[in-house]
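pasting for ref
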Amino acid sequence: MAQNILAKSNGTTLSEHIDHVLQCIEALKKAKRDVFPETWWIALRYAALLHDVGKVNPVFQKKLKFHGFKKSEDIPHSLFSLFFIKPEFINFHSDNEELKSIVLSAVAFHHWREYFPDLILGSRSTYIKNIANNIMENKSEWYKLSDILYSSLKKVAKKYSLNSEAIGLNDLYVEYLSYNDIGASGLILPPYTMKFLPSRIKVMSDKKETKETYEKMRIFVAGNLIRADHFASYVEDSYNKVALQEIEISEYLDFGLLEEAMEEKFGSNSFWQKKFFRRKKDLQGENLILIAPTGAGKTEFAYLWGAEKKNFIVLPMRAAVNGIWSRTCKFFEEIKEGMSKKVALFHGDAALEMYSLRMKKGENTDETLQTKDNPDYEGELRLAIEFARHMANPYIVCTADQIAPAVLRYPGYERIFASLMNSCLVIDEVQAYDPRAAAIVTHLIQQTALLGGRTLLMTATLPVFIKKEVMNRTGISDNQVINLLNEPEFEELADSTRHRVRLGMHDGSYDPFIPEMIAAAQNGKKVLVVLNTVRTAMDVFEKIRNMDGENKLNTVLLHSRFTRKRRKELESQVYQYMPNQKKRYEKGCIVVSTQVVEASLDLDADILFTDAAPADSLIQRMGRVYRRYARSKGNNAPSNANVVIMVQKVKTGSRKGLAPGIGTIRSSSSSAVYDFDLTMLSLVILLAMGSREVEEVIKENMISLLKKEEWKKCFLVSGSKKRNNEKLIKSLNELISKYNCEFAVTEKEKLQWVDVCYQLLYDAQKKEEGFPVYLGSYLNIYDETLDILDNGYCSESKKDAQNIFREVRNVTIVPAVMEDDFCREVADWVRNCCGNITYMEFADKILYKYTVDCPWRKVIQKEDSLPVDVSKIISLINCADIHNKVQNKLRRWLAGIYVVNIPYENEKGLIYDE
């Protein structure tokens, strides 16, 4: 009779499922090497034993057997489980009532539903009272079910040394809930949603344990229960093709193996990463901040730092993530056969990226061609994606939006935090995030430290406000902040140069610079042009093509508004034209791009023409120029400028919200690309550096300079509220005209530039007494976001949390000009497959070729925007036998994709004004 209690519609019984979850927990315990208290593991085992006992509910059993069965006044099995738990029998070998409360909450909320607040305290709370009354009125029947439940789980409890008496109908609780709301019981407290924040604050203040210890225990139990439950269900749904023990693959590379591999890779046994950790052994695996120039070898440093532990390597952009993942797979496979499969790729398009990469390799090698034709490959790919999603791999390379939004405490966020416990988190290029996202990443670093994980924050430039917060929140000391240029191996590099800078002006047309770009390319130079907006990049690209009448130059436009297939083709072209390799492309070329090249592409150009931007963004762009000299000492800068910063002159009648004269830069209230005051300050410091108006770029010297009228009038005066950007930019134009020169910048000066820029911004916005100018409110968003997070903000869902982090809502579209070809190609593909279609092939062959990401606001501006017409595709297939097989799949796969009448060209991409 006990086996009649089902846990899954696939036939898995409750006792089987709970045993599987407990096996997963034992695997986690083995992998975690007993670094957590034994009482925590006992609590987690009890949570696993009890988490699904509510499935004994006859209503739930009918749902499993008859999928269409529904009953209006039913409650989720996780809450129903509370009726069948006797907390007094949960034994920890110590008196710990708080752990019992944690177990009950973990059970109740391991499957969160958006209507839980209504069930607990709101309009649906009567559902629970009605069920409690039903149990009271029919106790004999419920006691029988309780006995069956007890019998079915008794052996499982004994197997894991748990007290089976904790399973059974809780008469006191049933009677209490027949009269009262579950929210008023004090037995459980929802850890999610803002509605319960006041109650959580009050409860936390009453805890015997410190707030941090209690929260750490709760996250450990709740997060690992969710992980184990999800993975066990995945194994059951895969019909045991995957081992339960693979929930945590603890196959880590040790320091010695990594060190030996790097000696072979670098052709030397004295590389700086090795010397550093030999000199400072105690810092390996500890919280660190590493500030190092682009191309210095930060990634190899991270491998050694995180040796012998689980690693999360987090980057801001998918292209950068794809590159580091490929590089890591290749390097690790050279160290140990099979290790490439232990490196997970984790972002929104990870499956498609891996599929496309394998297909591409299959076109070039017989060995991988066999894999390509392997009908099981898509299954292998799904397995890799599932392992990444369950965070089972020892090495996970991912975009920040997969990890960082957990600090917004969406339902189930504990799963991420539990994985970070005792793990190594690598955050690369934090300066690439806007202030809100940077605050979220800062809070992630803090939470990781509190939970016992370790973080390596590595970056080419680090704004002082982020540095101060990270140090304050994690306890990182000065000796844990490593400026590579201060290390013995890099002291001479600090004074080396590879960039000579010139600031020039234009009237918005870029006309003074375009002939210079073309001439450089005609002389064999690799010319990189970086503009702040896609619209500007399109315009400059068009002007270059028009001026180069016979189109003899290799000219490429690269930005984010191409179809995925076209963007990959363009990226390949760019790599071909200006690779960061000893063997270089013979002819000159021009690559016109946007911020996508700042951190995502490993390029080496000869000369850069760039829009004005904040100091850290400009340094990232400069890092793509003369990259071959990144680790060369001495003066390697050319005699003429190889970095040209293009500043727009004052232009009357310009569009509101733009800062004419600096390019597309926003004032504090606008929605353009960069903050006006931050960018103005960056340019003024750079001019002061180049003109040698200051002996050294330090804060005190710059404050003195900003008190001089000609420099001061580039900014608002402290206390002034009236903003006239045109007047400020006119003052900047005058400075550029007066100090018209080219100057080399050392690696050390670049770091000083960023450091002083953000120090001044920080002091000004903290209203330091006597500060000579007003520098806006750029840091306010960062501070306000941290304050909100510190006070327990909870997002309603993971999707909402990711949208807050990204601060953008894009949708996938098919440009209207491509609709007919799209529909026809889908129909032809379905016919050729005889209806035996798979999503991976569909995404790789069709969506990859025709779809573009587009802001939602642009879609709704077009009245004729409509979802893809699946019926049109079905009619083109024109085969009745296939129709029924494919139309449901196509509707599901194309849901949320729109056909939008925005112009699209193969060379320019999606065209609209931004």
